[in-house]
Write a structure and sequence with these properties.
Layout lengths: L70 H10 L3 H12 L1
Helix pairs in contact: 1-2
Length: about 100
Amino acid sequence: MYKGPGGGMYKGPGGGLYKGPGGGLYKGPGGGLYKGPGGGLYKGPGGGLYKGPGGGLYKGPQEYCSNIPPWPVFIQYLEENGYEDEATLIKEELYN
């Protein structure tokens, strides 16, 4: 929940609440709302919804470096902005 540069709650470049390139709320390549490789909504290796090593839903010892806000904040944003399917998917993965 860090609000400083690079943090999940930071609104500036690279932050979880940033809507520009590389930000957690960015829809383009590498962004938190991107569904392609490396994106926050990508289910493949390195993606935010990947369950294996390096993925956002991995439960092993390796840390995940995320460019999205903390999960609860991200879920709320998704629900409020028309990404209900993605929010549901994340909730099912996290809480089931």
